Amino acid sequence: MMGKGSSRPRSRGEGKRARRFGALMLSIALAAPLASMATAKADTPVSPAVVYNPGTIAQPALAVPVPAFSGKPATPLTSRMPTTADPGTLVPGGRRQTLTFADYGALDPLQLRGTDGQNGIAFSVRGDEVVTGAVLHLIYSYSPSLLPSISQLKVLVNGEVAATLPVPREQAGTLVARDVAIDPRFITEFNHLNVQLIGHYTQQCEDPSNSTLWATVSNASSLDLTYASIASKPDLAALPQPFFDRRDVRRLELPFVFAGKPSPGELEAAGMVASYFGSLAGYRGALFPAQTDAVPLAGNAVVFALSDAKLAGVEIPPVSGPTIAVVERGAAARGRLLLVLGRDDNELKIAAKALGIGQNTLSGASATITQFSELQPRRPYDAPNWLRTDRPVRFGELAEARDLTANGYDADAVRVNLRVPPDLFMWQTMGVPIDLAYRYTVRPAPDRSSLNISVNNGFVQSLRIPAASASTFDLAHYFSRVLPDGTAAARHDIYLPPLLITPRAQLRLHFYYDIPKTGECQGRVLDNVVGAIDPNSTIDLSGFPHYMALPDLAAFANGGFPFTRMADLSQTAVVLPNDPNSADYSLYLLEMGRMGASTGYPVMGVTVTSANDVDRFADKDLLILGAPGRQPLLQRFAKHMPFSGDGDARTFQLSDVAFRVVDWWHGEQGPERSPARADLSLVSANGDALLTGFESPLKSGRSAVALISAAGQSDADLSAALLDNDLLPSIQGAMAVIHGRTVTVTSNGEAYYVGHLSPMHYMRWALSAHPLLLVFSAVIAALIIAALFYRALRSLAARRLKD
């Protein structure tokens, strides 16, 4: 299983990988090239890696011998950049893929500092493939102060030296490109590629932290890998492989195939499986192109069929109950099919549920589910990926203990991902409380060392890291709290500002240690500092009620809200056109994948219906899909939404929101609402894609979101925007129009509210938005109190006069 494989010691994994590599080399008749490579390596006194001339920067990586480095300087890079092959390009005997360092997660160029600076990326190889050729297209620059005779750059793969690059003075300070061939035997399942600067600016005494010791590796550098497939038998125990492999950083694209026009029950089963794979894909995103009556010509796919179905190119096995099976496709198709089968829609959904929550118990090429007990009903806001809102949450529940520790002066920040419900009401609060416990290395003398806390890119607080100085505090107290390793513990209460808390927030805790200035001839500074966050530190959302102004497409785009309020989408109905097509099915499956990625749970309670039957589900939130002219609800609900359409005719309700800065995410009372200022009607043969949100006309307090696109480019634009993390923050308000990679907010809609506040809390909040009403209420309250006192005093006076 995948989880077990990841926990094996690296040495055992590398040995197994090497054995598989050797067997594959024999099977694909590469013995001769390997023998040549060995001969070239023995005869060459330099590194086994090869530095190519940048003029051949796009040269394919081949597992054949290459000439040794000649010492000829590389050409400075001007406007020429590495050409990137399409991910997954098929080549004879395997597949070739080129990904940049940015694709591997390096958002910024890699900085190398000091006499021994090192930085790099991590990359992995699918479990069903092995690397047969690797070329690194390296783009870098370095300091003019480096001495070429005693300075160099080293390329390391899993600690092995793949190449040593000179730093000639004539190329210093310019952008340089080199190709480095990497021996594929260095590459295992999980890998680290690092570039190390061995830098010196003088042959005499030098300062190891001198600012002239630098090199920069561009994140446009790329790794060009050629793969060959590894043969294995179909086995459910290997799921989710080969349909999804967590080592693969590419976007998941997995076709879903139906034997004929699918029924609502079949679509609900498909939605469960899509959400399962979507939760696995996570940040990568997932596409599920839908097909009917035929499987794709090549690659993996998931097939949904009843026992009596006929599907071209697929032999449906005998079905005696809910069944899950994996079958091999023909050699030309190069893939496998995951079959989800049943005798009726109910059995099909049972098979899908078993796949979503019980895949770890499956084994063999086929499994029939003989008994399946329904799980306990989900509760609101209990999605596995979301922070609990009913109790404090330990950091140990959100990250591995090893990920909460940072070592060294140049260590990255400790990062904790926070998926937060978007409807938390934080009005007039200090923010989200965190009980932060941590350990730090005590500084030998007072300096600028600190623990810096931020959320995303927003600064929160800086906590000073104190120094040990016998002249400033009691030594007995010092030695009682400082451990023998030189670390001490601290605890602080901090508050994360409400404006920084988004559904996809990331808490960053950076231990910054000031490097002591040793000066020249003093040697290197020991890199022996550490910072660690206690896993028992907690973050607490339990004190905030759930209350939010809608429509707000930002909540939908970034967290699937309000549908993901229930992790299984048991209060959601997806409304398709009365005559849906493959594009409608694909968009539906994409959305189910996004919901699964948000919650981390399959959508086992989702309901799929058509426009004609929508009234039966008035008590649910509605996710409406379809194009104008094909989705009747766009006309029926026209009075309640800022868009209506019928065929080529479309009507928009527009406001001036596009001319104002729009950031409603954490407004105290939701978005600033104003009525629509204009209506625009037009006729167009091909409209842009758009998203719109509004209150459900079928029941007050329920929500509706419509995803509207026509067949063709607008379908592609909508799907791409929903999976583009750069565009999602731009989707806000009540209606957003998408054209290519441009998102325009055109309306903020009419507000309605979901959630609940206590009476006192609601009264304070409501009156805060209407100061005149507050004054009027205060005057009325004063008059009422005065009248009561007047009556009471008159009664007392009358009684006294009578006596």
UniProtKB/TrEMBL annotation:
Q: What is this protein called?
A: Cyclic di-GMP-binding protein
Quaternary data: Tightly associated with the cellulose synthase catalytic subunit.
Q: What does this protein do?
A: Binds the cellulose synthase activator, bis-(3'-5') cyclic diguanylic acid (c-di-GMP).
Kindly list the GO CC terms recorded for this protein.
plasma membrane
- Membrane topology qualifier: Single-pass membrane protein
Domain of life, per lineage = Bacteria
Q: Name one GO biological process term.
A: UDP-alpha-D-glucose metabolic process
Question: Keywords, A to Z?
Answer: c-di-GMP, Cell inner membrane, Cell membrane, Cellulose biosynthesis, Membrane, Signal, Transmembrane, Transmembrane helix
Tell me which InterPro entries the record gives.
Cell_synth_B (IPR003920), Cell_synthase_bac (IPR018513)
According to its UniProt record, which protein family does this protein belong to?
Belongs to the AcsB/BcsB family.
Pathway given for this chain reads: Glycan metabolism; bacterial cellulose biosynthesis
Q: Which residues form the signal peptide?
A: 1-31
Q: Give the stretches traversing the membrane.
A: 772-793
Q: Which NCBIfam families match?
A: PRK11114.1-1 (NF008323), PRK11114.2-1 (NF008327)
Cell location: Cell inner membrane
